[in-house]
Amino acid sequence: MANSKQYDNASSSSSTTTNTSSRPLLRTCLDSLCNLCGPIDSTEYLDAPFRPRNSGEYYIDTHNDESWSFSFGTGEERGIWMNSGDQAGSIMATLVWLLMSYSAVTVTLLTVTKGLPPILGMIYTYLCAMALACHAKTSLTDPGSVPRCAVPMEEQRRESPSHSMCGQCQTFKPPMSHHCRICNRCVSRMDHHCPWMNNCVGAANLKHFILFLIYTWTCAAYSLTLFGWNYFFCASDNCMFNKLVIHLVRPMTFLCIGAFLFTSSMLMNVTYGIMTGIGTIDRLKKKATNTMSQSDEEPIALKDVFGIAGLHTWPFPIDPLFDDYDRVMGYSTPQRLLREQQFIERANSGSGGLPGGERGGSSSRWSDHV
Ligand SMILES: [Zn+2]
Ligand SMILES: [Zn+2]
């Protein structure tokens, strides 16, 4: 009980550290936390001898054992992730859709009025549609919120006896995660909360955010090239813009210049974050305390952003499949640890009868419920 009390006290501040080295304490925490996620016997997974997976042994296991409901929000009980509590963010995200649609309509009108070849207009509309699809995916994807039953991974427990807790969420706080006051959740590998997306950018939706930036940047560069070419090189009536549509083109030019500059800076920001392993929030904190030079973060592997499902999935806003979901998110759940233990035991037995998966080589989705 004393250990349990220590755990409770430690979690009362915003971000505190608690000692979870002793097994009885961890078992107490697990037993209480597991009740939130469903019945599970923590003894089974704690007492099992743990062997880390060898390289090539992996499976996809993103199932959090949470019941699903048709409801919108950022709470753990909500089935569909959507940040509806921030009015400014909702307006800014809607504005993105309005401005992108306005630019697509303008370019379409230019093709209809014979100011542009139809194929060039179709390319722009496709880029716009992809940017908006990525925007919707970024906004409506859980950025990596930490569930109440989150526990440190086996590796983290062996490396360090103490772990941070979030005072607001009352959960284990994974390394590199931050508590977002707008989403009111802790988010794994949180980069920043983006009002234009009306969502946090974290480990699970960074791919969609990067794709949105790339498609928007390409849209802006593409339309500026078209307008520039028309302005400087068009000398005949065949390529002149319609006199009415030109009133839409002028504001769009300023819009594209702004979008080009903004997405360029954001792309450089995100690229720097991936190359250094330091997200936007961490970078600002380190700069404020002048500790940038003391950073020992590792660069983020591209497979931890875009997944391992193959290069053909990278340009599309589909959820990435990670080879080790727990490692990417920075936490595990008792259920997933137990499933991993079973995975390894079956791999050790050499029966080859892994549930729903294959050993090594190809990735496999294993979402068996324990
Ligand atoms: Zn939190
Ligand atoms: Zn947020």
Plain-language structure description:
A hairpin with a 4-residue loop joins strand 4 and strand 5. The longest helix has 31 residues. The protein is elongated and about 75 Å long. With 370 residues, it is mainly alpha-helical. The chain has a 3-stranded antiparallel β-sheet with strand order 1-4-5, with helices on one face. Strands 2-3 form a two-stranded parallel ribbon. The N terminus and C terminus are likely disordered. The chain has 2 domains: 149 residues, no CATH class; 182 residues, no CATH class. It contains 12 helices and 9 strands. The site of one zinc ion (ZN) has 5 residues, from loops. One zinc ion binds next to loops. Keywords: Acyltransferase, Membrane, Transferase, Transmembrane, Transmembrane helix. It catalyses: L-cysteinyl-[protein] + hexadecanoyl-CoA = S-hexadecanoyl-L-cysteinyl-[protein] + CoA. This is Palmitoyltransferase.
Give the arrangement of secondary structure elements.
Elements: H1 2-10, E1 15-19, H2 23-37, H3 42-47, E2 72-73, E3 80-81, H4 87-112, H5 118-140, H6 154-159, E4 162-166, E5 171-172, E6 178-180, E7 185-187, E8 192-194, E9 199-201, H7 206-233, H8 246-276, H9 280-288, H10 303-306, H11 325-329, H12 334-349
Parallel strand pairs: 2-3
Antiparallel strand pairs: 1-4, 4-5, 6-7, 8-9
Helix pairs in contact: 4-5, 4-8, 5-7, 7-8
The structure holds zinc ion (2 copies).
Biased composition (Gly residues): 350-360
Biased composition (Polar residues): 1-10
GO molecular function, one term: protein-cysteine S-palmitoyltransferase activity
